[in-house]
Amino acid sequence: MSGITRLYAGRLAGMVVRGPDTDAIGRVRDVVVIIRPHGQDSRALGLVVEMINNKRRIFVPMLRIASIEPKDVTLITGSVSLRAFRPRTGELQIIGDIIGAKVHTDDPEFEKLHGRAVEIADVELELSRTRDWIITRVAVFGERPKFGRRPVLHTVPWYHVHGITAGGVGESNDTAELIAGFEDMRPADVAKQLYHLPTAQRTEVTEELDDEKLADILQELSEDRQAELIEQLDIERAADILEEMDPDDAADLLGELPHDKADVLLDLMDPEESAPVRRLMHFSPDTVGALMTPEPLIMDPATTVAEALAMARNPDLPTSLASLIFVVRPPTATPTGKYLGCVHLQKLLREPPSSLIGGILDPDLPPLYADDTQETAARFFATYNLVCGPVLDENGHLLGAVAVDDLLDHMLPEDWRDAGLRPGEEPTNG
């Protein structure tokens, strides 16, 4: 990410948001943040953007931002979720909730402000080395002078500002604090903690989690617990959650539900999202076809090394799937044209950026086939020391890829997630 690395959130209001092709998508209306307890970084989650064409307000994650310049914000991709933005518990908006709020400060640099309510004028965000936009400082008004003079502004470090929590300004909310605490936890650890909550609180938290987060958590639960939670959701939201899940996990979950409900959910899903799920559900559960993801890194041979590395950097891509690039004749959507071979990520790192990946293929790695058994897949990974492998049909078209973590998930006992990392240990909240 290039461009500005430190700014006040108020400056973002009204900025034009553009896709990578520079076409205007909308304008920034607010910044969504998550407030963490003191000692932990509070950070921006994304922007509320008002679309130009229909005035709908949508949410754009900060990780989708390529750069912030003085007059506009440029996204990494022009593909954004068009769902209407809805505030969720545990999230605050800087302009809507924080600016104008009354707080107090214990900054030793401004003793005259101690014990008094001060008003927030703006919030500073700074880009960290991990690409997170962290709240670092707050501009506050001191005492407002009389006779229309301009108020005096003071800049206070965020950790000296008190009175704002995940529940809001001057408010406490156990559910909001719990959800805020989930933010830096791995989905597997959140899943364990979530399942051990009292039923009523678990239901409340589930309702308030955003769809993408809940999908990540569901994928870390055993399939019967996934089914239990999805049954508690409104049918339309359940379909939205399934769209956010990896197709192979969504197919496994639907296989646990009654056939009539699974059919309804598939019909409610976006056709582009449900199509790969339907294909996976046709494979026998004990085959490689049922384990694979239809969305690995797939490119044509004319792709450059630089372009391939840029795609491999996608933060939404699991590490295992980023380790291998599959090269095919067009079309590159599964099922693809003829499969040509693969390129290892380490190989890409050793080649000139302008080289074409078609010239550095490993054509000799044998593929897996959709009707291969799980044992065959295990032998494949053990033989070639890989964490990901291509899955072909009998005509040499790439259908997807199978990752070693998905294979282990199915080869371990069914209750392995419930038993935890070391069966017999008491569950923890970390």
TrEMBL record:
<dbReference type="InterPro" id="IPR038076">
    <property type="entry name" value="MgtE_N_sf"/>
</dbReference>
<dbReference type="Pfam" id="PF03448">
    <property type="entry name" value="MgtE_N"/>
</dbReference>
<dbReference type="InterPro" id="IPR000644">
    <property type="entry name" value="CBS_dom"/>
</dbReference>
<feature type="domain" description="CBS">
    <location>
        <begin position="361"/>
        <end position="419"/>
    </location>
</feature>
<dbReference type="InterPro" id="IPR006669">
    <property type="entry name" value="MgtE_transporter"/>
</dbReference>
<dbReference type="GO" id="GO:0015095">
    <property type="term" value="F:magnesium ion transmembrane transporter activity"/>
</dbReference>
<dbReference type="GO" id="GO:0016020">
    <property type="term" value="C:membrane"/>
</dbReference>
<dbReference type="Pfam" id="PF26205">
    <property type="entry name" value="SH3_actinomycetes"/>
</dbReference>
<dbReference type="InterPro" id="IPR058838">
    <property type="entry name" value="SH3_actinomycetes"/>
</dbReference>
<dbReference type="InterPro" id="IPR011033">
    <property type="entry name" value="PRC_barrel-like_sf"/>
</dbReference>
<dbReference type="InterPro" id="IPR046342">
    <property type="entry name" value="CBS_dom_sf"/>
</dbReference>
<dbReference type="Pfam" id="PF00571">
    <property type="entry name" value="CBS"/>
</dbReference>
<keyword id="KW-0129">CBS domain</keyword>
<protein>
    <recommendedName>
        <fullName>CBS domain-containing protein</fullName>
    </recommendedName>
</protein>
<dbReference type="InterPro" id="IPR006668">
    <property type="entry name" value="Mg_transptr_MgtE_intracell_dom"/>
</dbReference>
